[in-house]
Amino acid sequence: MSDTSINLDELRQRIDQLDSDILNLISERASCAQQVAHVKLAEDKDAVFYRPEREVQVLRRIMALNKGPLDSEEMARLFREIMSACLALEQPVKVAYLGPEGTFTQQAALKHFGESAVSLPMAAIDEVFREVEAGAVHYGVVPVENSTEGVVNHTLDTFMDSSIKICGEVVLRIHHHLLVSETTRRDKVSRIYSHPQSFGQCRKWLDAHYPHAERVPVSSNAEAAKLVKTEWHSAAIAGDMAAKLYGLTHIAEKIEDRPDNSTRFLIIGNQDVPMAGEDKTSIVVAMRNQPGTLHALLEPFHRHQIDLTRLETRPSRTGVWNYVFFIDFKGHRDEPKVAAALEEVQLRAADLRVLGSYPIGVL
């Protein structure tokens, strides 16, 4: 037996031993999670088991301690799944998302909560909000902005009529593929289905490769994938999850015009989230129509050195005020400088509501 074979056998034995150690440690962690559940329930029968700030702190710690060779994000994803499975032993997290199955929103929900969460598809953004408000689910996941196509106005507008709070965020790299079924005649594709935003994100590629194909907008990319199964001359723009769900084949991959194409999703719930160390706050502000309105709104943030990350304007629903601003900025509402800035804005605004302070997305 060669030295190479001996070394390989030794390495395999070492891997087997490490696997056993990892298995025992994960089981020990799961037992601790069960004990945590018993302690929480003994103190409060309505105890909250999922704590967004705690989850983020654990993942950030893991990423800081990681020495490789796996990169920090990959290590954090592994721990996310361990945490998800352990949390399910305490209380399975029920999450509503903008469906149907196979959408990027479902992918974002699984990325944030892990595969052990119970994810439920909803037909519209309003329904996601309604399920969370009613307490039928613990959290909801809705898209809020895309790096190519901009803000999702429907999500912002729904916040104006809701008491729901933002509890977290997740950013998902969006890769679009051109998909066909086993019956598609690839040289005869004359119709392409997709969500309108996906058409916008792939416009240049489509103009170059399928300039004469009919572009048919549908409610979601998953719906587009489903329609392709029944037609021989059509294709769909969708992601890997939809392709796997409906058994479609890629004929072109990563056709988005911008390689950094990303969508930001919000985690919505009914709870206030304590500080996690690196946080973001979202507010909605109504201002009266008068000279210097925008300056009056933004000046306190500048003076208190608060970094604004997003500013959007939407029409007022009531007609009483002309301007309604959605603002995201770094910092937590409980930080002294943030609290001071918000107090000043409150005095200048017709109305101000904090939608939530929450951890900046880790993954």
TrEMBL record:
InterPro entries, alphabetized: ACT-like_dom_sf, ACT_dom, Chor_mutase/pphenate_deHydtase, Chorismate_II_sf, CM_dom_sf, CM_II_prokaryot, G/b/e-P-prot_chorismate_mutase, Preph_deHydtase
Entry's Gene Ontology BP terms: chorismate metabolic process; L-phenylalanine biosynthetic process
Sequence ranges assigned to domain ACT in this UniProt record: 282-359
Metabolic or biological pathway: Amino-acid biosynthesis; L-phenylalanine biosynthesis; phenylpyruvate from prephenate: step 1/1; Metabolic intermediate biosynthesis; prephenate biosynthesis; prephenate from chorismate: step 1/1
Cell compartment(s), UniProt: Cytoplasm
UniProt keyword terms in alphabetical order: Amino-acid biosynthesis, Aromatic amino acid biosynthesis, Coiled coil, Cytoplasm, Isomerase, Lyase, Multifunctional enzyme, Phenylalanine biosynthesis
Enzyme Commission number(s) of this protein: 4.2.1.51, 5.4.99.5
Domain Chorismate mutase: 2-94
Biological role stated in the UniProt entry: Catalyzes the Claisen rearrangement of chorismate to prephenate and the decarboxylation/dehydration of prephenate to phenylpyruvate.
Coiled coil residues, start to end: 1-28
Annotated Prephenate dehydratase domain residues: 94-270
Species whose genome carries this gene: Vreelandella glaciei
Protein name: Bifunctional chorismate mutase/prephenate dehydratase
A Pfam family hit: PDT
GO molecular function: chorismate mutase activity; prephenate dehydratase activity
Gene3D superfamilies: 3.30.70.260, Chorismate mutase (1.20.59.10), Periplasmic binding protein-like II (3.40.190.10)
Record flagged with keyword Zinc: no
Reactions catalysed: prephenate + H(+) = 3-phenylpyruvate + CO2 + H2O; chorismate = prephenate
Site (Essential for prephenate dehydratase activity): T263
One GO term describing the cellular component: cytoplasm
